[in-house]
Design goal:
By secondary structure, the chain is α+β, with helices and mostly antiparallel strands. The protein folds into 3 domains: 54 residues, no CATH class; 125 residues, Sandwich (Immunoglobulin-like); 105 residues, Immunoglobulin-like (Sandwich). Helix content is 18%, strand content 48%. It is built from 2 helices and 18 strands. A hairpin with a 6-residue loop joins strand 4 and strand 5. Helix 1 runs antiparallel to helix 2. The radius of gyration is 32 Å and the shape is elongated. 19% of the residues are buried.
């Protein structure tokens, strides 16, 4: 007995078109999801960390900038505070410091001759619980000192016994002295590189590397103007500064301000270079909110899928 089954070509064509639509929409969803993840630069939840800070010994000021003539001296003050609930003994020492990379990680040297320029009037003090005390120091510069920058860290340190009376906890905090020996000094810098995004969604950053080729430190004052290309209006302005030590490269990272409306914008960066003329750099960027960018992507992919479907339908 033979069983004859009749298949309607129209049914087959409808089934194929439905399968084509399903695959097209699946393709759109996959691409949109990947784009959305990359656009937002999503970080996994487990990458988040929580840091806790505990106050113990505090010191102020954290940084001082001084100008001293060779063969002269200058007095200064440090305010040290015991923020714990028990008495502590604090030791005061001085070390020369320098930077070792573009991120400005510090290196310290206790054996430097420059560290010997510092004389603490009280190298050791005792602080009761919650007590603050002003400590005086004198920095004496030899008459033979060459003009230029010198960098000294004033350390306040204390040792404490843990709750189990077996572990010594050492706390060490610093006040940094940026000293310029007065004379013929130079503050010259140059912009090594500047990185600015061309497509921005959500929070973004720009970065620059500045070199100090002079003999003492300077403040690189930098700013960013965000200008609407259609109206020519300045929509956002941000500014700040970074201290650059001589003979070093420093990486500067800044937040990119978000404009009020999406679109194309001109970005004008002005980077200070000490006594040299500031460097002005122009870049362009497209600003789109993530949801707007995702909507545009879905529309484009939908049009592509519809075009492919129509071409295949005509061939069938």
């Amino acid at each position: 007995m033979n069983l004859l089954i009749k298949i309607n070509p129209g049914v087959v064509l409808v089934a194929e078109s439905m399968e084509l639509k399903r695959k097209s929409w699946l393709f759109i969803v996959v691409i949109a999801t990947l784009f959305f993840s990359l656009y937002l630069n999503v970080s996994p939840l487990w990458a988040k960390t929580v840091t806790e800070t505990q106050k113990g010994l505090t010191l102020s000021p954290l940084r001082s900038e001084l100008g001293i003539n060779p063969g002269s001296s200058l007095d200064g003050d440090l305010v040290i505070t015991n923020s714990t609930q028990k008495t502590m003994t604090v030791d005061l020492t001085a070390e020369e410091f320098s930077v070792i990379n573009q991120h400005y990680d510090y290196a310290f040297s206790a054996r430097s001759d420059i560290a010997k320029w510092i004389n603490f009037h009280e190298p050791e003090i005792s602080l009761a619980a919650g007590e603050s005390k002003k400590v005086k120091y004198t920095i004496g510069v030899p008459i033979s000192a060459e003009p230029g920058g010198r960098y000294i860290s004033l350390f306040a340190s204390t040792s404490d016994v843990g709750d189990d009376s077996s572990v010594n906890l050492r706390q060490r905090i610093a006040s940094l002295l940026y000293v310029t020996i007065v004379g013929s000094v130079t503050r010259s810098g140059n912009l090594v590189s500047l990185s600015s995004p061309v497509a921005v969604g959500g929070q973004s950053h720009w970065s620059a590397v500045v070199r100090n080729s002079g003999t003492t430190h300077f403040h690189s004052r930098y700013s960013l103007q965000l200008i609407n290309l259609l109206s020519g209006k300045i929509e956002r302005v941000s500014s700040s500064d970074a201290l650059i030590l001589p003979g070093s490269l420093r990486l500067i990272v800044g937040d990119l301000p978000s404009p009020p409306l999406p679109g194309f914008y001109k970005l004008i960066y002005t980077i200070g270079l000490g006594d040299m003329p500031a460097k002005v750099v122009t870049r362009y960027a497209l600003f789109l909110e993530p949801l707007v960018a995702l909507s545009i992507l879905i529309i484009i992919l939908s049009l592509i899928a519809a075009f492919i479907y129509r071409r295949r339908s005509k061939k069938a």
